[in-house]
Amino acid sequence: MRMTPFYSFFRANFFLLSGQFSFPGRRVGEIIPQKSDEAFTIFRQMIKKRNPQKGKPGAIFKVRFQVINMSPEKNRIFSLFTIPFFTGLPGFCSKIWLENKNREGEFMGIYEWETVQDAENYSQSFAMRNMTKRSLPGSASFEITAQQ
Question: Which residue of 5, 40, 45, 119 lies most exposed, with the fewest beta carbons within 10 A?
């Protein structure tokens, strides 16, 4: 089945209404250093309840981009509106939203997906294409790492 924005939106709203999403605040403000000697600060976290029998998520999807035509404050607000368009995709487990405080407009998302294939599907999704469209050309990059 091809994943459409409508499919994801309605599926995400079902999960939301059934209490499957949480937004814990315990990591907000935590600084995550990167290999490039840059540090990103967590400003939001979202977790989907999972069946414990499934074990740990199988993939990490990390994306970085430089937002254009929008202040960092507006991007943090705008990012709330995008939630139903990726959380309803098959395999979504969690996301952490981060901002580079030393480089205005640079953001990162760290997602957990059930499988590497789910993460690869997200990399080709409408949600990723829309994020890239609102990024400085050439600034969007991602990596997928299999979890053990």
Answer: 5
- What are the Cα distances from residue 135, in Å, to 33, 68, 99? 22, 5, 14
Q: Is the pLDDT of residue 1 over 70?
A: no
- Using only C-alpha atoms, the chain has a radius of gyration, in whole angstroms, of 15
Three-state DSSP state, 122: helix
In this predicted model, what pLDDT tens digit does every residue of 61-116 receive, in sequence order? Answer: 999 999 999 999 999 999 999 999 899 999 999 999 999 988 889 999 999 999 99
Q: Can you tell me the distance from the alpha carbon of 53 to that of 57, in angstroms, rounded to the nearest whole number?
A: 11
Contact indicator for 45, 28 with CB cutoff of 8 Å: yes
Residue 73 and residue 29 in contact, taking contact as beta carbons nearer than 8 Å: no
What range defines the domain where residue 30 resides?
Answer: 5-146
CATH of the domain at 56: 3.30.70.100
